[in-house]
Amino acid sequence: MMGNTLRFLPAFVAMRQLLVEGYVGEMQVCDVRVYGPSLLDQSYGWTCEELMGGGGLHTVGSTIIDLLSYLTGARAHRVHGLLRTFVQQNGLIRGIRRVTSDDFCFFQMLMGGTGSSSSGVCCTVTLNFNMPGSFVHEVMVVGSTGRLVARGTELYGQRNGSKGEELLLGDSGWVGPEVKEMPLPHLRGLSSMVKALRQSFQAHEERRSWARGPVATATTFEDGLYVQTVVEAVKRSSCSGEWECVEIMSQEPDPNHNLCEALQRNKN
Fold this sequence. Notes:
The chain is α+β, with helices and mostly antiparallel strands.
């Protein structure tokens, strides 16, 4: 299993159950906004380098891609994206070193359906990490009969024709330690995932094996491969300016791909 903790956040567990029960009717649109402070470390490191997995798309966007697949039960087949690095140097990262990882990312995904079919779910995701002192984490699913919105760790819903939103799941309060580097939705999701793992091993007296039930919804390796495939398609789209198809890898990749890419970039 992969460590994508948002699947275990109670708000998203409840949201998925309500979607399955038909709260919003036929799913049409997903809209995600994540705003927050810089993801860069205090010194130059992997978070500064796009090729080393740094940036909003890799670190946060990947979890959102997985979450949307979990909520909708569908996978993206076409994507379009834009990545920007607005802060290339700062007071601690300067001189010959520059940041190449993105601090702003916007991408769209067509999920479910195939080809030019009008069926499926349209998703938009905006990630902006140029907002110090604030954090916004909002996931909205709009359907034919209503909508569900997860703001932070709370879940709201509104059916078509009703006067306003209703609180479906409140924030019970976080009693654990504060971790400045981890936003509350991810922190609570991690806590819930660890509890599920504990229950999984406690199901067997000797704890030499584990029960699938408590972690049945966890991200699998195949899910992780799909997520990385979408991430790479978004990056290609940002370079080409066009919609890109999501094609899951079926054979071993070239081990020198990243090296060749870096050499080509330096040549240009």
